[in-house]
Amino acid sequence: MTADPRADDPRRAVPLDPSLAPPGTRAFRDAGGIPADRWHADQNGETLVPTHCCFCGVQCGMYLRVDRGGKVFGVEPRNHDINRMRLCPKGVNAYQQVNHPDRLTAPLMRRSRDEAFREASWDEALDFTVSEVKRIQQTYGNDAFGVLGGASLYSEKTYLVGKFARVALKTRHVDYNGRLCMVSAAGANKLAFGIDRAGNPFSDILLTDCLLIAGSNVGECFPVMTQYVWGARDRGASLIVIDPRETAIARTADIHVVLKPGTDSAFFTSVLNVVIEEGLTDEAYLAAHTTGWDEVRAKAAEYPPSRGAEICGVPAEQIVQVARTFARAPKAMAWHARGIEHHSQGVENCLAVINLCAATGHIGRPGAGYGTITGQGNGQGGREHGQKSDLLPGGRSIMNAEHRRQICEIWGIEESELPPAGTSMMEMVWQMQRREIRGLIGICNNPFVSLPNYGVVKEGYDAAEFHAQFDFFLSETAANAHVVFPVTTWAEDEGVMANAEARVVKHNKAQDPPPGVRTDTWVMCELARRLGVGDKFAFADSRAVFDELRIASAGTVNDYYGITYERLEETGGIAWPCPSIDHPGTPRLFEDGRTYHPDGKIHLQVVDWHPPMDPYDDEHPMSLTTGRTVAHYLSGNQTRRLGGLVEQTPRPWAEIHPSHGFRNGEPVRVVTRRGSEVFPALVTEAIRPDTVFIPYHWPVPTAANALTIDALDPRSKIPEYKVCACRIEHAEKIDEVPAPPVAPGHVAYPEAQVSRTDPWPPTSPQGRGTSERG
């Protein structure tokens, strides 16, 4: 690659020394990605298209390499300031899915699940879908049909999912797979701060004196974020990691708290107890900027370190050490992810972290604050504009009369036509079981792998009289549908996503889709037209949708009005809220000491720990917890088809402590109250003896989520993936990993399947004691 010499202009340089240039609004805005016109390809006929990775919430900048025939054939890292030329294994391989031989290129259809799929014309598939929608709704009512969206969709499409469900289908039942991701953090943020997003940009991590990471395997799940952790460490920051496994990031920590799964809120409240008892609270900050402190203080008195140690299975001295390290730091930050959010007390876990940050005054300053590390690529943006069951565009509440009036005016419908709030994703499956929901459209999700308690999920979907799915590969869920619509990958359309910092970034189209493939936008608009409301869905492309989204969000907490495609191209990203075209965006919240509640204060919440929902007994004395690996993403429908990633991590395993008497690779049966499966043992000292870890990217019969419990947090409705009772047993034969489903007439792509039969667990990067393969 050859850079334009203007790129070296010092006026455009991104300062690398945070002590010389602390990141503020201006620095954050000016440190955008280098515009695309400053690069050209040395290879004749090659084009570089600047965009972002399709996977996690870091949203790394990349260039897709496009040949003279208009096809994506490679990738290069981009010097966007979020990743600065770095990509993880998934990012390096992401381009391979665009022209993959498993791509769906024609609608698939069958009128009964007893039939085999056949290719159909678009008109036939669309007409059949519309006829089934009308039949079910005319027979059982509008709410007998539901829609499930996805948090890997562009924000324009998530906006359409909510509008399509409520205006075209006129149903209350719409939700999305972000319900499985960040909603506990969202609920806590709204309760405490009146806004649902991280409070600080990643760049603030470089300025902190103490970094606390809870329930996040950063090195594998957000690898490029690791550079910020190392940058803080290089400046001398302390690192505290809270995790039952000694992950790669935990191995480098000053303090690694190996707590028992399901005890997070007890731990953080016990830490708060020490902070209070040792006089380490910031009383001036609490008096000026919080409500509810007296009640929180009283509850914390019930959690001395001795009680916290007993509940969490950690030394009381370590609780004291964490409290002193975090509270005494001049600037401290806390970040967390699914490890503390995937619980029936997920909201309380997050609130307990917020209580600690507020009590020590570590809020709203460079290097001091609180944030959630978003899992899905648009996990942040995906819940902001209406596909969540209780929200309307702009984060408005569907239960608020004024919010309803505002959106109805924009959409051109009567308020009486707008349905009330629906139910959550897992609750919708239960309603399908009970035949309250009889038809479903799924977009960009794979519940057969991603939802807990697979037996219940399969039963619910099988009970549906009609099911259509949008996807570009035939997922395990789509393979059970009546109609599958072939839609575009991220590289074949344009749109925006909001990353873990709430920075809105622009994805650009790199190639035309294959013949026969349509965008999700086109399919939803065409279905709406055939349902008789085409005038409400007259969108030619993503840009037209985004223009309406901007208007629909104007004046809300989640204000996108000042964000345009042109500004995103110029700046490399803008953090919302951004209420006007001349507004720089808001990378750091609460700098003026005010939250987004009407009184401007942090509303602290009392947290009281309770045990997980799946009780331990003599038959199930251990904890099963689940998570991601560096090579795979969510349900694996994309990454399990890419040869390099399959070779790196071909199958799931059961990670167990050496005290159980297994050797690496031996079959170990993991048994819960939902069933049992057999995995190769990965024997390591880097996990608690009472805990088993299984990665969840694979389907039955090697699905971690065939074993997990479908208990939900009562407020966020997130499933309790991170803890359920289990036992382990010796077994004879390891369960075989199935190949991903493919369309009729295709066979599983052999280059991506060669490693699936390897019975051994990976040797790295899971932790100490994993190099032995015998």
Automatic annotation (TrEMBL):
Residues 1-26, 737-774 are annotated as: Disordered. Residues 46-102 form the 4Fe-4S Mo/W bis-MGD-type domain. Residues 765-774 have a biased composition (Polar residues). InterPro entries: Asp_de-COase-like_dom_sf, MoPterin_dinucl-bd_dom, Mopterin_OxRdtase, Mopterin_OxRdtase_4Fe-4S_dom, Prok_molybdopt-oxidoreductase. SMART domains: Molybdop_Fe4S4 (SM00926). Residues 1-14 have a biased composition (Basic and acidic residues). It comes from the Bacteria. Keywords: 4Fe-4S, Iron, Iron-sulfur, Metal-binding. This is Molybdopterin oxidoreductase family protein. Pfam families: Molybdop_Fe4S4 (PF04879), Molybdopterin (PF00384), Molydop_binding (PF01568).
